[in-house]
Amino acid sequence: MHGFFDDLTSDEPAAQGSPFPLMPEGEAVDMGTAPDGTPLIDPRIFDSPEFFRNPYPYYRILRDHYPVYHDKLHNCYWVTRYDDITECYFDDEGFNTIPKGSSSGVLGNTQLELSGVEHRRRRNLYGQHLVGKSLQLRVPAIERLARDMIGAWDEAAAAGSEYVIDEGARRTVELGRMFANEFPIRVVCEVLGFPQEAQADFYYWYNSMMSGLGGSETHKQGVEARQHLEDYVEGIVEARRKAPTYLYDKDGNPVGKDIISKLCETRVDGDFLSTEEITSNIALIVGGGGETTRGAIMNLWCLLLRHPDQFAAVLDDESNWDKAFHEMLRHSSSIGGQPRHNTFDIEMHGVHIPAGSLMNMVDFSANHDERIFKDPEKFNIFREDLYSGKLLRSGYRKEGRCSHMAFGVGPHLCPGAWISHQETVVGSKILSATMKNPVIREDKMPRDIDGAGPSPMGIVSVRDLWIEFDKP
Ligand code: HEM
After folding, report:
1. Taking the model in full, what pTM does it have?
2. pLDDT exceeds cutoff 70 at 2
3. Of the four, 106, 149, 379, 425, which is 20 to 30 A from 298 by CA?
4. Domain 43-470 is classified in which CATH homologous superfamily?
């Protein structure tokens, strides 16, 4: 639900008959030049495997020559510079999310499509439970869930799982299947207050809803899954209205009510929230919190293990996990960007954009804008131009440091940013305590076209990550 370019796999094969050859990483296909020497862009590139594998050289051409590119093939405008994108995100009257429509029917009537006062009202209802003190109360649950999942590896190895393989003194685990795919959903399930026994159904509904957003074939299944979720949530809501339930710390003491119990007692203008309102909030949290955080965990481990000196620095000083988390999101976030519609006729960089046009804000490109980040294609957790402090809705831009754009900025800034940060960092600390001397099993990872190196991450998050480490 988060944006365009989601839900793609990194090892997508080259399409038969694609007009664009796969280029060495960092280089763009020559699509011709204008008489003045400006490189031309053929918009078919945006649908090509070459682009998904290797988008950054094309974003550079766009930023340098077409900061607002009118793509007549896809009937939209691509906005690629950091400054322009932040400006549009802050101005939610001039650039609104209506009629985004991408979540229609599947997620229900969500705040994604709202702007202004109504948006703020909806967002605050549950957003407050995902930040600050409420979030701190959730950390023990996050830790316990991570330990439970990692603790199950021994049993999986003993049972002959193909994703936990013991060979001599070493163990190989496929991190996606054994951890990252399900962990964020389990966390969301737990903090919302779903009973443990519902987690498997929940995971199924989540997957169906997510694929339902991807296309017409799977749309029906997505809508059905949403209906099942709604029926289930309805029952839970009725039960919680009578008897709220709690989250507990590791010693079993209650630390606060779960989110559903909190929403049940929330009143707006004297009225309790309707079950429909609670359900669509839940569907949105479920939709927002899974794939994104899965991608964050996978990309973080992939990037760190491919930069062993930086991984060593993180193990040496745990406070570096925060820097690594933010640099990973700048370098390779799992969300490409966000669509907006301009409310008025405007002119940007000499391009006339009629009111109501689809404008795609390319967060990926903003994060690689060399006007803001030096050597943007380099992963460097110690870069001096990236802000990695407390996340702010206003963004951060001072003394040569800027926040990345992976969570957006302004009124729609991701309300799950804080909890996904906790999930990724807390989960990774626990993983690193179990996985000693880890290396990527490159022989099991997809290779690049020349076969020489690993396949670039491109526009997507890593699907499978095979990690070998000392058997505990
Ligand atoms: C690394 C993980 C994540 C990334 C990169 C991410 C990214 C984003 C981005 C870029 C937006 C802005 C959308 C816009 O401007 O239109 C957004 C919105 C949103 N995210 Fe996330 N997200 C992540 C994790 C989560 C989690 C864990 C949750 C829930 C627990 C969540 C729930 C939401 C919701 C509900 C919105 C809509 C906010 C609004 O429209 O006001 N996200 N996210």
Report:
1. 0.90
2. no
3. 106
4. Cytochrome P450 (1.10.630.10)
